[in-house]
């Protein structure tokens, strides 16, 4: 598909697209004239499903003509999404029909990383993997097998392999993404299932998030709606993001956001602007927090952050004036610093000082059909999905390699199901605390997504087995021993998943077309067949994915037909529900902390880190001649996964290095110049983008470019691979750190 056709296609049919948010301003709203009537009869259908161009899984309506996907819209039956998807979602057919997809299982024949593979049958691939895993298990124990995936529905199938082998070392990608926020929420509310009601907020303070490029369709739309209704927005970001352009930009010094947040608390207490009733009724530990922020004055914070004290005082007063319909956004990719989780906790504590919990325009606990029985007024709407029962797995003989769960250390706070994925390469290289010899990777690209690309490549060289399941010959697949081709989301059905918000919601991904390449398979089938080959058939007791879905739906009484007809289930007649909107003193029965209160002081955090309320720790700032390297998402690509998708590649094929005009002038750098960016022992070439839209001590690039797999022929080598420059540095709770890299820049 050519770019022009793609952009026309973007507004075809019932739905719309968020192209306006692409930040490129490239799209125009042209209607696609229906094709001239073809001679052959046309069979048309719409299949409701969910997108996987990123992990948000937005509900979609796939238009199929004569067995081919011709167009993807948002599912109009979902009011939160309004029939809208983003530009990446629109590009699904371009991935589906891309001849560069991987089409058959492959086993390496040349040196690792040589790109030499032979195509094999699925059975040969399973036999090879099973034998190698068995050998590793016999020599080093089941714990020597690590698994990683970008968290998703395939995990129940994928991780069954590692669990059956007896490995404790199962990792999600979360430590590279929202983990700091998740831990911040877990330790404060006892749950991370807390959302923000952006659409109804009157004042929004954003701390390093870029809704208009780090897109979540429902959230992006909600923020856009609030802004169109006059909501004031203030954005803390060292660079002028697309979001910052829509509000007041505060170019905060990197890694100092906590100082700003603590100073807000200082002002709210000093001027008695906070919600005392809320704090008294619902929280514990406020006095300790008050003591902690007593000397965190706006004057002090101005020094730390580079934002004037008048601005800090004004923002605090404005937040208070709009309370409880004001909110401080808690962040998504929360990987800026080592103790980012304390920043996220502090943000939530100040939110609670605004009393913005369980009211419109504030934060709320997710009202999912599984837990709704705890809210008496809503218990009738509870419909919990059935568990798909499997026999108990063997207990791993050793603890995890990353210390996750160890009492008395910060890692006791890290969710066991996620772990610290950045630990894997270090352990492979050092053999400490014990060797990892086999690594199974699903829908994840650690070569580009765990800091320090060279280190990951070096670690891979030491393995006995690396298996990657992907849709493309990703950078990690290219360096693997076995590559397994999954069919795309448009070619597979998955299990029912929960997308609840203010009301419960279940969504089902449903196969829209037959696999374009007959030898690609869905994850559930790949791991069931591999498991059976390894003698673990008992852990896969269902016949196929349809049987799995039936088992999930059985206790709910929800019919599969609902998904065929609408693509989702949501309780008829239930209105968005905020526990405190009618009664400001209503009990918070969904809170899951031990104290049943919101824990401003957390015993668990105290035990794990010695800092039961967030404490300010200053981080180093770039020295003379250095810049802080930061990175971010771009509207038309997903992380490191879409740069080779033809239409998206055409929209944006390279990134540049943003550098402040004054700093550039000092170095004699102009826009378009070739630069050398260096960090420690690593150097990378890049192209300069000289701008006023970034702090003088900071440089920025969009993440995910400069891919190293030559078999991604379009994306290969184009642009800066930021991940090569970023070390594999882990924070206290195992979070990967991305905003603490200092680089030097010179003209090439
Ligand atoms: N189009 C698109 N949408 C996506 C994705 C995508 O790749 N493309 N990825 C999805 C995923 S996985 C995620 S996690 C989300 C991420 O969504 P966001 O968290 O919004 O995304 P980022 O752009 O990674 O980071 C946000 C901002 O943090 C700023 N920043 C860096 N360091 C600091 C700091 O120390 N302080 C402050 N205040 N700001 C800082 C960056 O300049 C950037 O503008 O987006 C999701 N949606
Ligand atoms: N330096 C640096 N590192 C980062 C970040 C950063 O900003 N800077 N961002 C972090 C964040 S927020 C995140 S979420 C992670 C994301 O890290 P990743 O999960 O590695 O990135 P993605 O691009 O989401 O997807 C990874 C792979 O999934 C494959 N894929 C896509 N669809 C399918 C499918 O249907 N089946 C299979 N089997 N594979 C599929 C893609 O081809 C791609 O190779 O990276 C983190 N790492
Ligand atoms: S945000 Fe865009 S790419 Fe991601 S799932 Fe939704 S429509 Fe697809
Ligand atoms: Mo992410």
TrEMBL record:
Bias (Basic and acidic residues) occurs at 399-409
Query: Is Thylakoid among the key words of this record?
Result: no
**Keywords recorded for this protein, A-Z:** 4Fe-4S, Iron, Iron-sulfur, Metal-binding, Molybdenum, Oxidoreductase, Signal
Q: What is its EC number?
A: 1.-.-.-
EC category? oxidoreductase
**Which is one Pfam family of this protein?**
Molybdop_Fe4S4
Cite the SUPFAM superfamilies for this sequence: ADC-like, Formate dehydrogenase/DMSO reductase, domains 1-3
Q: Which molecular-function annotation in GO is an example for this chain?
A: molybdopterin cofactor binding
InterPro entries reported in the protein's UniProt record: Asp_de-COase-like_dom_sf, MoPterin_dinucl-bd_dom, Mopterin_OxRdtase, Mopterin_OxRdtase_4Fe-4S_dom, Mopterin_OxRdtase_prok_CS, Prok_Mopterin_Oxidored, TAT_signal
Span of domain 4Fe-4S Mo/W bis-MGD-type: 44-100
Q: Where is this region: Disordered?
A: 393-412
Q: What are its cofactors? A: Mo-bis(molybdopterin guanine dinucleotide)
What is the similarity comment for this entry?
Belongs to the prokaryotic molybdopterin-containing oxidoreductase family.
Name used for this protein in its record: Molybdopterin oxidoreductase Fe4S4 domain protein
The organism's taxonomic lineage, starting at the top: Bacteria, Bacillati, Bacillota, Clostridia, Eubacteriales
